[in-house]
């Protein structure tokens, strides 16, 4: 891949110093990527940064890589993929509803309130969330924060009380997107 980067740079008529200067890098730093002695050349973000300095794309870099398929003037036949510009249409999110059985989140939401949540959408701080535990139980809380050890939420027996749920017990966390007083 380093050879492909060097080939792209030479095609553009740039020295290592000129290419590096475009992204705030020294010629030595650029040379390490071309020599394959600097890790990260296979990372997409690094490829975008380096090829951007050459007014190229990571796809152009891949086509210059030894063993890459030859460029063709005919478009590839691709089925069942649609795109809008460079962004692909995301898969539809699954929306579900859940009726609160208790008043422990009052005044945010009282018993009988129907909550609509999006499975797989992570909540922001202070947003309601539905947490499904490994045992199949659901907890409705106000999201605070999470790390790799635990999920911290509020609303357990009062809005100002926090609860720490071990991450190992959490199957999913989903953001609440609507509160419906009547269904």
Automatic annotation (TrEMBL):
Entries under PROSITE patterns matching the protein = HTH_CROC1 (PS50943)
Q: Name one GO molecular function term.
A: DNA binding
Q: Which InterPro entries match?
A: Cro/C1-type_HTH, Lambda_DNA-bd_dom_sf
Task: Give the highest taxon in the source lineage.
Answer: Bacteria
Q: Where is the HTH cro/C1-type domain?
A: 5-61
Q: What's one Pfam family here?
A: HTH_31
Please give the Gene3D superfamilies that the UniProt record associates with this protein. Answer: lambda repressor-like DNA-binding domains
Name of the protein: XRE family transcriptional regulator
Species of the source: Brevundimonas naejangsanensis
